[in-house]
Amino acid sequence: MSNDVVIRADRLSKRFGTLTVFEDVSIEVKKREVVAIIGPSGAGKSTFIRCINYLHTFNQGTLEILGHTIVGGHNHPSKDVLQDIRTRVGMVFQTFNLFPHLNVIENITLAPVEVKKVPRAQANARAMELLEMVGLPHKAEMYPKRLSGGEQQRVAICRALAMEPEVMLFDEPTSMLDPELVGEVLAAIRRLAKEGMTMVLVTHEMQFAKEVADTVVIMADHGVVEKGPAREVLESPRTERAQSFLHRVLNPEEVPDPLEQEVLPIGGRR
Amino acid sequence: MHIALEYAGTIGVGGLKDVALTVVSLILSIILGTLFALGRLYGPWPVRTLIYWYVEIIRGLPAILQLFIIYFGFTQWGINFSPLTAALIWLVAYGTGYAVEIFRSGIMEIPTGQREAAAALGLSSRTTMIRVVVPQAYAIMLPPLTSFVVLQLKNTTLLYLIGFADIMYEARLGVDATNHAAILYFMAALAYLILSLIIGRVGVRLERNVAAYR
């Protein structure tokens, strides 16, 4: 693995019993690179990104990450290896998953204090810095329940960043948000990208993917249908599956009404 | 009314004994119940099976039968518990059986996202339990826990059958001596009612504190 490559997934496959979630997915993420994974729901994007920090196991393939190698379907990585990966890889979830019984600052400092043994005062100071960065220092003492979705997600980003990760994983970070709150979360992610954070991002925000991502991977029908430089893939996709997906996403008003194709009178009789 | 005054003291002392016994057995049941619930959910299979059967036995057998086995049954093997010891053993054993189920369902109600978030941050499963899962489970469990405390308090009435001098025992003794069944049992009822109202109040207070974040 060249020194520049932080994550290399080689032909990863994941099945639940007989159900194939994804098959033969290979991606490579270099240091400071932003990789966006897009594609229709059910393509296995979220499951795949969870395999990167081993929240999900996988059945086949090899995952090289931060100097560790995990082979699918065989022995689980040891606790030490998992902890090393997870302390160096931050993750932000679709549903935020803040700890509701802890206030904002406790949410952010829990892992640094418990896992990295950072002194409490230092952890608090760092948490405040991070909250300043996302514009939420005045919410430090509040419980998550009192925050809007956008604010919760920004706190969740701070919580992940407090571990000083080398890689950040974003699993559809804006898809649970009201439209007017999406922008504030994207702004925080954009800023991280500009600072050179290595990131893998599963998203439905095409415009944003085009703007921040270096590489775009399109997953559909349980596999990668196209990947390459962001602009190239999004503007002139080569495969038919990628073309039809992008066309539908970018021109939703042109997707034919299934009811118009076969008109049945009410009651169902012709 | 002099009968009431005469017995107010002894019934009161019986009430204090009930309260003390309930509190002590409750603390032990909650600690054991938490540990057993974790064992039932995450332990190796022999531990899980053992705890499963323990809960089934406690919940399946009549309470009085359990108490009599501990107090009278064990004398067959030369083990003689005092009424107090037998009472405590039974209340803890019985309480633990119920606490396990309350805690188990509390823990199971924590969304998986919580555990995933903790894992993604590199928290060990132990730290995740102590800092993330159990505190939230306690909050979920407060309402059933409150009714469980009242249940345990009412269970102390059975202890008079093994001669433990609680509210019920003192009232019964008074009735035997004076024949004033109505007034003395009414006083016992009043004592239990006051105690369970207090428990209910404390429960509501705790739930309100927790509501700050739920």
Can you describe what's shown?
The complex is a heterodimer of chains A (270) and B (214). Chain A is an alpha/beta fold. Chain A has a domain at 5-98 and 167-252: 3-Layer(aba) Sandwich (Rossmann fold). In chain A, 37% of the residues lie in helices and 24% in strands. Chain A contains ten helices and ten strands. Chain A has helices at 45-52, 79-88, 104-114, 120-133, 149-161, 179-194, 206-212, 230-235, 240-250, 258-261; strands spanning 5-16, 19-30, 34-38, 60-65, 68-71, 89-92, 167-171, 198-202, 215-220, 223-229. In chain A, a hairpin with a 2-residue loop joins β9 (215-220) and β10. The relative contact order of chain A is 0.15. The mean pLDDT of chain A is 90. Chain B has 214 residues and is an all-alpha fold. Chain B has a single domain (2-210), classed as MetI-like fold (Orthogonal Bundle). The longest helix of chain B is centred in the N-terminal third of the chain and has 41 residues, at 2-42. The mean pLDDT of chain B is 84. The A-B interface holds A 50, 53, 55, 79, 83, 86-87, 89-91, 93, 95, 97-101, 110-111, 114-115, 143-145, 156, 159-160, 163 and B 111, 113-114, 116-124, 127, 131-132, 135-136, 139, 212-214.
Describe the structure using short key phrases.
heterodimer; A: 270 residues; alpha/beta; Rossmann fold; six-stranded mixed sheet; four-stranded antiparallel sheet; 10 helices; 37% helix; 24% strand; B: 214 residues; mainly alpha; MetI-like fold; flat
